[in-house]
Amino acid sequence: MTPTRNRIQAILTIAYMNGIVPMRTQPLYLLGVLASPLSFLFFIDIASKGLLLPYAIAGGMVLTMVSIGTSLQTDMSHYKQDLKLQDLMVASPVEAPTYVAGLAFSELVYSLPGIVVFALLWVLNLPVGLLAVVSIIGVLLLVWAFASALGFTLATYFADVRETFIFSTLISLALSVLPPVYYPVRLLPGWLQPFAYLSPTTYAADLVRGAFGLESLSLNAVLIDWGILIAFTVGLLGLAAWKARWREP
Description:
Elements: H1 3-25, H2 29-48, H3 53-82, H4 85-91, H5 96-110, H6 112-125, H7 130-155, H8 161-177, H9 193-196, H10 200-212, H11 219-243
Helix pairs in contact: 1-5, 2-3, 3-5, 3-6, 3-7, 3-8, 3-10, 7-10, 7-11, 10-11
């Protein structure tokens, strides 16, 4: 086999092991993927009497993809500390990018039922256009990429799996609850708005709402949102490549 084919096969094997197998053996775990996004959607829908349901759908999509990154952090810490799988990978021909890509892809596969639920809600409640579909898929893939890179980097520094539960909650809070993911940034007080733009999910949510037709974004605003979101993603991927501890010091 060629090296490229070997890498693809390794990625698919890891994705099957950490994505398909748990989905088949413990289907109740899938409720965990949907719990937070659907809880926010439910309460926002009830509180607004349905008026903000489209915003909740957009926010739920972004939150689902962020949750994938935090799940990667927990899984990697478990494999590294409890099962010593990372040590096995270090000693094997499998390279760090292949291992991480396989785990990240497995989280995406594992989260597909949740993504499908929000996709159905989108189709049933909002107009669907080809350009909107392409735009939203692109945004969500970037969110998945930077969240996975962040989760991987943090996981390589944890000495105890229990630490990941603390940081997973804080990361979720910092990226998907406090920033304007479920609501437009204009609803924040003026002095808070600059802080909201420190989070990459603010730009992702802007683009998703723009694709939904909930926000009227100028071409410049769209280009700026895409540019900053891509820059965040490239930066976090670079940080993962530079600072993550693949081998123990």
